[in-house]
Amino acid sequence: MNDYMGKVPGQFFAFNIWNIESARAVMDAAAALRCNVILQTSVKSFALLDREELRWFVTRYMKKHDIQVYLHLDHAQKTEIIAEAIANGWDSVMVDASDRPLEENIGLTNEVCAMAEKSGVLVEAEIGAVGKTRDEIDIREAGIATIEDIKRFVKSTRIDLLAAAIGTSHGSYHESPQIHYDLIEETGRITDVPLVVHGGTGLGDETLLRLLSYPNIKKINISTDVKLAYRNGILECIQGGYMEEEDFNPLKVTKLIHDSIENMVAKKLRLLRI
Ligand SMILES: [Zn+2]
Predict the structure, then answer these.
(1) Rounded distance from Cα 42 to ligand 1 centre (Å)
(2) Is the pLDDT of residue 53 over 90?
(3) What DSSP string describes 34-62?
(4) Which of 20, 103, 163, 258 could lock onto 196 through a cystine, CB 3.0 to 4.6 A?
């Protein structure tokens, strides 16, 4: 099952989820569109959720609906957490040692590769620094990965996926990001290791389609948009007066929140078919 790189062709969106309900909303969109999808958990969510329950739920869902759904651990800095994700049946893990010097990043990444290989779990690593949208522009520019470092990194590790900082950021953009498309192209020329784009929230359809036009982009991460869709669902409930109704119906509230996430996810997944 742990074969979304190489063996499963195509490109993926990865959506951050934090519980069974958010996982269900993302998978419902994927099932309706007959699309494979990646669900990812932040380290914070991973710490709080019932891992066994989520693993079981996702496995049952994909069998029932005949789609592939992969569970991924996002931005982990500690090997202990990564070991837990592997033990709990996550399909892939991201080791993020991008704040360390290159050699240390390589060292920790290799440690994780050795841990993951035994279980057939895929490894994503980060190079450069994908900032947050509230960072200053010059900090973001400084964090862009260099082709020399990318070359050294992929030669020195056995990673399955590379999150190279190409100019996107986490959070919501206040201005259009300067994406280094040349770096995507150059990376494709020097290595078969596919790229992951972090900070997919707020990138317009045109930008997302342009990114997807590069065959070496395998995964685009969407986190903030899932949270915003969840919030919009709640706001709709409030604005629709559902919270004030005398015969308050939690099913209506749950459905609006679910549908808000499902619709956002469907919009992104449709881009894979254009
Ligand atoms: Zn990220």
Answers:
(1) 9
(2) yes
(3) T--EEEEE-HHHHHHS-HHHHHHHHHHHH
(4) 163
Report the separation in Å between the CA atom of 198 and the middle of ligand 1, taken as the mean of its atom positions.
4
Encode burial over 204-241: b for 16+ CB neighbours within 10 A, e otherwise: eeebbeebbebebbbbbbbbbbbbbbbebbeeebeeee
Tokens 């996002």 correspond to 74
Instruction: Reply yes or no on whether the pLDDT at 245 is more than 50.
Output: yes
In this structure, what token pair is assigned to residue 210? 């342009």
Q: Please give the distance, rounded to the nearest whole angstrom, from the Cα atom of residue 196 to the centre of ligand 1.
A: 9
| Angstrom distance (rounded) from CA 209 to CA 61 | 28
| Average pLDDT, integer, range 134-150 | 71
Give CA 49 to chain center in angstroms: 17
The per-residue pLDDT for 123 is 96
Task: Give the tokens for residue 238.
Answer: 């409030």
Architecture of domain 12-224+262-273: Alpha-Beta Barrel (3.20)
- Put simply, whether the predicted model's pTM sits higher than 0.90 gets the answer yes
Ligand 1 center from residue 21 Cα (angstroms):
22
Q: Where are the domains of the chain?
A: 12-224+262-273
By the 8 A CB rule, do 259 and 236 touch? Answer: no
Kindly state the tokens that stand for 47: 């710490």
pLDDT tens-digit series, residues 231-243: 999 999 999 999 9
User: Ligand 1 center to residue 219 CA distance, Å?
Assistant: 11
Cα–ligand 1 centroid distance for 177 (angstroms): 15
The catalytic residue positions are: 74
pLDDT of residue 134: 57
Closest of 203, 178, 191, 221 to residue 75, by C-alpha: 221
133, 169 contact by CB (below 8 A): yes
CA dist 20 and 45 (Å) reads: 11
Beta-strand relationship, 92-95 and 195-197: unpaired
Tokens, residue 112: 């994780």
